[in-house]
Structure formats: C-alpha cells, structure tokens
Write a structure and sequence with these properties.
Layout lengths: L1 H5 L7 E5 L1 E3 L10 H11 L10 E6 H13 L5 E5 L2 E4 H12 L12 H7 L7 H7 L9 H6 L7 H14 L5
Parallel strand pairs: 1-4, 2-3
Antiparallel strand pairs: 3-5
Helix pairs in contact: 4-8, 5-6
C-alpha cells in the first residue's frame, strides 16, 4: 500500500495501529475477546493468579476518535500507534477490585513464569510464547498520534471501570 501511495497523488494513506481495545461497547454482544476476558476476571477464571503479560491498551472511544480524525485531518500522515498505557492483567484486576470491591474473584496475584509456562496451552498460548513473553515489559510511544491526530487518551483506570460497568449494566455476567 505504501508503495502504491508513493506512485500517485490522488489519495493519502495513514495507518492506525491500536493496542488491546477495551472500553464500553455499543452492543450487548459477548463474543469479543475483550468482553470474554473481562467476564473471566469476574467469574473466577483468574482467581488463582494471572501471568505477567504486558499489554498496550487503548479505549475503544479513542480508537474511534482516531479513525474519524484520520479521515478529516488532511495533514495527518504516517503510522499511528494507539496505546494510552501499558499494563499487566494484574494491573487490570487491581483496578477492577478498587472500583467493584471483593464481590467478584478478581485476580490478586501474579503467577510465576514457570507456572504460566506449564499451563499456557490450557489458555491458548504456546510454551514458546510463555517463555519469551511472560515478565517482559513492553513500551509504546504514542506521541505521534497525540501530535498528528490531536488525541487526548482516556486514562486506563477510567477505561477499565467503564468497560466492566457496561458488562454489569448489560447483564453479561448472568
């Protein structure tokens, strides 16, 4: 695509590269990965602990705003990484516990890397993935998306709280 755009001047190209998209949904569907994982946070799937896997996270509302701004900002160009913050699954569990208390068995501990390596296939991960990624902190630079698209990211805590509240409001835990 970049090669093609360089050979013509009728249209521009830019890319939107979102991290893990969380935040309130507009529908009551529960078949998305982000909804499923949030439900698993509440149903006890992770009550014995979670792997130390780092994620770059962006609010769905920020991802939508970025797409709109990309289409209506003629001077926008290039590659835009959409990540508000980096966090582990335990960080998400801690945010959920802070706002929703102990009514749900949110994870309180991080599983040792060896434990994750042993059970990784039960959760859809390869052992190779577990050994190469558990405990490895990642960092994203969102400064270009902030400058080029004038994005102001919603804080992670607000995103996680709104996402889980939507799940409760829509009765998706029942």
């Amino acid at each position: 695509a970049w090669e093609i755009v360089g050979k013509q001047d009728r249209w521009d190209l830019l890319t939107i590269n979102p991290g893990w998209i969380l935040g309130p949904s507009l529908s009551k569907r529960n078949d998305s990965t982000s909804i499923r994982i949030m439900i698993e946070f509440a149903d006890g799937t992770y009550k014995r602990g979670v792997a130390e896997l780092w994620h770059g996270i962006v609010d769905v509302r920020d991802a939508a705003a970025a797409h709109i701004k990309a289409g209506y900002t003629p001077e926008a160009s290039g590659r835009h990484i959409l990540v508000s913050e980096e966090a582990t699954l335990l960080d998400i569990g801690n945010i959920l516990r802070k706002h929703f208390g102990d009514d749900y068995p949110f994870p309180k501990t991080q599983a040792p890397k060896l434990m994750f390596w042993l059970i990784a296939p039960l959760f859809g991960f390869t052992r190779k993935f577990a050994s190469k990624n558990a405990g490895v902190k990642i960092k994203f630079d969102n400064s270009y998306s902030k400058a080029d698209l004038k994005l102001e990211y919603i804080p992670l805590e607000q995103t996680v709280k709104a996402h889980f509240q939507q799940i409760l409001d829509d009765g998706l835990l029942e």
